TrEMBL record:
Segments forming domain HTH tetR-type: 29-89
Designated name of the protein: TetR family transcriptional regulator
GO biological process: negative regulation of DNA-templated transcription
InterPro entries, A to Z: Homeodomain-like_sf, HTH-type_TetR-like_transc_reg, HTH_TetR, Tet_transcr_reg_TetR-rel_C_sf, Tscrpt_reg_YcdC_C
Residue ranges the UniProt entry marks as DNA-binding: 52-71
Coiled coil stretches, renumbered: none
Lineage, broadest ranks: Bacteria, Pseudomonadati, Pseudomonadota, Betaproteobacteria, Burkholderiales
Pfam families: TetR_C_3, TetR_N
GO molecular function, one term: transcription cis-regulatory region binding
Length: 230
């Protein structure tokens, strides 16, 4: 009887300990995500060299020492920010290959969805887009290997989709690599150069209508370039 109760008591303690550990991990994950959300804005505004750990800590409402408990160096925090950026950026790119894998997707519909997904990223995550662009423009000194390992395979997969469409006569024979580069440039410019665009349009910031108009224009350009017999 006592042994049984002792065993049950031990199990109960183990369960309570596991629950407490899980809660601590969840709280840590949440705090790290909050820190990264502040960091991406400051890195976008100030660049890597111009950003200090103290500024990020102040923005996150933490002491510098407390922040460094979670991210011991600025470079580690910067890599975490870029990991998050790349995760979401690649997720927005996944619609092309996924739709093509289903076999029923129309190339025009899939290209339209691809452009719109990339443009939504620029609208919804402008700081993320700018941090990534600044890293690439700077020669990808701190994040080049990750880009090579993660972006290149996705790009090759999407190129294979284009090549299969071309072989089947579903789209015109285009240079898929440079068409994808052009789509990236056109969509990302609405994050990286949003301030310039707003000035030209004589407004404080781009409006939802501007992004809709941009999407319509980019889609028309892409579909015109890929239209069979065009």
């Amino acid at each position: 009887m006592n042994g049984k109760n002792g065993k049950n008591g031990k199990n109960g303690k183990n369960e309570a300990s596991a629950t407490a550990t899980s809660r601590r991990m969840q709280n840590r994950d949440r705090l790290e995500a909050d820190i990264a959300a502040v960091a991406v804005r400051i890195f976008a505004e100030c660049g890597y060299e111009g950003t200090s750990v103290a500024a990020i800590a102040e923005g996150a409402g933490l002491s510098k020492q407390n922040l460094m408990y979670y991210f011991p160096t600025k470079q580690e925090l910067y890599r975490r920010v870029l990991d998050d950026v790349l995760d979401e950026w690649l997720e927005r790119m996944s619609s092309l290959a996924q739709g093509a894998a289903d076999g029923a997707g129309d190339p025009a519909d899939l290209l339209r969805a691809y452009v719109q997904a990339k443009l939504r990223f620029s609208q919804e995550q402008p700081y993320a887009s700018r941090v990534y662009a600044m890293e690439v423009i700077g020669g990808a000194r701190l994040y080049g290997e990750q880009i090579r390992e993660r972006v290149v395979p996705v790009l090759k997969r999407d190129i294979e989709v284009f090549e299969s469409w071309i072989a089947a006569g579903r789209i015109a024979a285009v240079n898929a690599t440079h068409l994808l580069f052009a789509i990236w440039a056109m969509t990302q410019s609405y994050a990286d150069f949003a301030a310039q665009m707003a000035l030209v349009l004589d407004r404080r910031q781009l409006l939802d209508k501007d992004y809709r108009d941009a999407g319509d224009t980019i889609v028309r350009l892409v579909l015109a370039a890929t239209r069979p017999g065009g």
